[in-house]
Amino acid sequence: VQELSTTQIGGLSATQVGSISTTNLPLLNATQIGALSTTQLKGLTTAQVQVLSTTNIGNLADTQVAALSAAQVGNLSTAAFSALNATQVGALSGTQIKGLTTSQLVALTTTDVGELADTQVGALTATQLGALNATAFSALDATQTAALSTTQIKGLTVSQLKNLTTTDIGELADTQVGALSGTQLAALSPTGFSALNQTQVATLSATQIKGLATS
Predict the structure, then answer these.
(1) How many secondary structure helices (H) and strands (E) does the chain include?
(2) Over the stretch 12-37, which tens digit does the pLDDT of each residue have?
(3) Cβ atoms 48, 75 nearer than 8 A
(4) Residue 93: Cβ within 10 Å count
(5) 189 neighbors 161 (Cβ within 8 angstroms)
(6) Please, is 156 exposed, middle or buried when counting C-beta atoms within 10 Å of its C-beta (0-12, 13-18, 19+)?
(7) Cβ neighbours, 10 Å, residue 131
(8) What is the chain's mean pLDDT, rounded?
């Protein structure tokens, strides 16, 4: 495989690319990877996608990353997915984002989270958002936080909420604060809860307040 020219690589059908062994596929060099068309990439099997190395991923153009199906993106190893750079991550569609697995999301670093566009953050399901580790979740900036729906807010875990800083709390819209359950509010650190401003506190319902008293 390593001896094939870029012209020869480009001449393979999607079926032929899909038949390259999982041993040989990761051996493709940067120019060979770059020669693969979006149609050929769509022909990669689950087994092939799972063996792509961080180097292979780094050699993909943004358009190639965007051509992968949600299932293919979801089958990238956690190391390979985390190796996507900022522009590659930016090329992911909402559909691809929804295909991310819990293990991929758990492995995201603060840098990875910072590369997500607001629309991509908004595309995550409540379950996916809840899978982010507490440190990574706290790394969401003001505009990313503003993109969170009330449904996503309801899916936040106790550990995520406990780790919120006063800055994070200040970034929450009144409607987002109002969407938190009493249990979620009680999970805020004393400093975090005290950081709620007057308008945020005014949105708290009687049910939320009762949850604080019994938690």
Answers:
(1) 25, 0
(2) 999 999 999 999 999 999 999 999 99
(3) no
(4) 15
(5) no
(6) buried
(7) 23
(8) 92
